[in-house]
């Protein structure tokens, strides 16, 4: 059972026991992933672009309660997974990523000094260290504006790669995962004696 579901069950259980209740406001966190796959079939360096649509971002809210009020959105991490195909001829690869919207293009990460080994189809997601502040801020701002301000407009995730050391035949899939943390408030019925939560003001705001 998910932690949020367990907490909600504990909070609402007294309702079914006939105990006097009231609505209190609580803060919750939802952790979701936005995954993009880049298919690479090149002999040498490549540049690939994946569009992140506003609909994709809004779909991240599907698991939130209908009466939830989102209070903040952050990008908590980026990770990458490289799956070489059977006819891939490269053992090491350097990667760089950037974010581009209608205003500008900003670097997200650089990996020129750290070649990534292509270890096989069972490769795990590996966290990307040393994220560039400008690109990370742009990614967060675009995602947050779509979720919290209901803005429209797509932006692009750009991936560049270069084979290193031996070979140049790149046949692989690169999966980039953006981990997003959504904080929200929700009013939940709890028993009168529970010393937790805050006064429920969400309904009066609607």
Which residues form runs of ≥5 with pLDDT under 50?
Answer: none
The percent range for helix content is 10-25%
What pattern of helices and strands is seen along the backbone? HEEHEEEEEHEEEH
Shape: elongated
Report on the biggest sheet: 5 strands, antiparallel
Give the averaged pLDDT, no decimals. Answer: 87
Which class best fits the helix and strand makeup? alpha+beta
* Strand order within the widest beta sheet: 7-3-9-1-10
Span of the ends, CA to CA:
31 Å
Structure description:
With about 210 residues, the chain is α+β, with helices and mostly antiparallel strands. The chain is built from four helices and ten strands, in the order αββαβββββαβββα. The protein has a five-stranded antiparallel beta sheet with strand order 7-3-9-1-10.
Quick structural overview:
By secondary structure, the protein is of the alpha+beta class. It is built from 4 helices and 10 strands; from the N terminus they run αββαβββββαβββα.
SSE map:
Blueprint (H helix, E strand, L loop, with lengths): L2 H14 L4 E23 L2 E7 L1 H6 L9 E16 L7 E9 L4 E6 L5 E2 L8 E2 L5 H16 L6 E10 L4 E23 L6 E2 L2 H4 L1
Antiparallel strand pairs: 1-9, 1-10, 2-8, 3-7, 3-9, 4-5, 4-6, 4-8
């Amino acid at each position: 059972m998910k932690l949020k579901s367990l907490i909600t069950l504990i909070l609402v259980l007294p309702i079914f026991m006939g105990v006097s209740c009231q609505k209190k406001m609580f803060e919750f966190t939802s952790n979701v992933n936005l995954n993009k796959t880049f298919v690479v079939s090149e002999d040498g360096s490549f540049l690939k672009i994946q569009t992140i649509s506003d609909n994709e971002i809004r779909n991240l809210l599907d698991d939130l309660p209908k009466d939830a009020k989102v209070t903040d959105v952050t990008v908590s991490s980026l990770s990458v997974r490289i799956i070489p195909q059977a006819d891939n001829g490269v053992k090491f690869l350097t990667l760089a990523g950037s974010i581009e919207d209608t205003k500008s293009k900003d670097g997200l990460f650089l990996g020129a000094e750290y070649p990534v080994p292509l270890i096989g189809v069972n490769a795990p997601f590996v966290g990307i260290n040393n994220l560039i502040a400008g690109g990370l801020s742009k990614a967060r701002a675009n995602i947050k504006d779509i979720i919290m301000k209901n803005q429209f407009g797509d932006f692009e995730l750009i991936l560049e790669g270069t084979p290193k050391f031996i070979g140049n035949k790149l046949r692989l899939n690169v999966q980039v995962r953006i981990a997003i943390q959504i904080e929200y408030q929700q009013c939940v019925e709890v028993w009168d004696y529970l010393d937790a939560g805050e006064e429920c003001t969400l309904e009066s705001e609607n």
